[in-house]
């Protein structure tokens, strides 16, 4: 229903020559490419039925509505905040390693997917169960020291920004995903 309302208001804004820029458009394209494509397809359908060609910013807004619908418990504002967190974690990784991540790699896609679920759990206060395998945690921590140091920066960010403490399991997963991304560029 909220998507129908949004489209109705977007058409009304267009008729009144009022445009709204989607500040999250690049992040939406990057983190939700399938939903963004649906938004672009929706713009074509809207144009076909109304003769109005809405700007691509609206495809991003439509994508957010779709993402929000798929994540029942999360609202649009939280979805936007989730994208901010994902972008900030990516920036921590890029800054730590002084690299650009290969956004076309399968490892990058998996990392983004992991971050989406990670951030969703954070916003819903759902922690993954820590299996308390201290030996595995210590092995990952010592084997991938530089990646683990990067995860500690993510940990610090999440704790300072949101009061969230990551479990050992979450830190292991982040370390492994960062390792895969870091070594793709070396």
Describe the fold and architecture.
The chain is mainly alpha-helical. The chain is 75% helix and 0% strand. The chain is built from nine helices and no strands. The longest helix is centred in the middle third of the chain and has 22 residues, at 76-97. The relative contact order is 0.11. The mean pLDDT is 84.
What is the helix tally?
Answer: 9
How many distinct beta strands? Answer: 0
Multimeric status of the protein? single chain
Task: State the low-pLDDT regions, or none.
Answer: none
Proportion in β-strands: under 5%
User: What percentage of residues falls in helices of 4 or more residues?
Assistant: over 70%
Question: Could you state the order of secondary-structure elements as H and E?
Answer: HHHHHHHHH
Distance between the termini: 47 Å
**Class based on secondary structure composition and strand pairing:** mainly alpha
Report the average pLDDT across residues: 84
The biggest beta sheet is recorded as: none
Spatial shape: elongated
Radius of gyration: 19 Å
């Amino acid at each position: 229903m909220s998507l129908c309302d949004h489209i109705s208001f977007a058409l009304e804004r267009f008729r009144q020559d009022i445009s709204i820029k989607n500040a999250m458009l690049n992040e939406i394209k990057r983190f939700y490419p399938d939903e963004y494509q649906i938004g672009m397809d929706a713009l074509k359908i809207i144009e076909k039925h109304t003769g109005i060609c809405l700007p691509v910013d609206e495809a991003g807004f439509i994508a957010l509505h779709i993402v929000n619908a798929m994540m029942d418990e999360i609202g649009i504002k939280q979805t936007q905040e989730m994208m901010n967190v994902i972008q900030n974690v990516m920036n921590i990784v890029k800054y730590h390693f002084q690299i650009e991540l290969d956004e076309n790699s399968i490892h990058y896609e998996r990392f983004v997917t992991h971050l989406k679920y990670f951030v969703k759990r954070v916003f819903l206060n759902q922690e993954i169960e820590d299996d308390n395998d201290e030996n595995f945690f210590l092995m990952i921590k010592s084997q991938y020291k530089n990646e683990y140091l990067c995860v500690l920066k993510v940990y610090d960010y999440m704790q300072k920004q949101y009061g969230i403490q990551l479990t050992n399991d979450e830190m292991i997963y982040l370390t492994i995903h960062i390792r895969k991304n870091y070594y793709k560029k070396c």
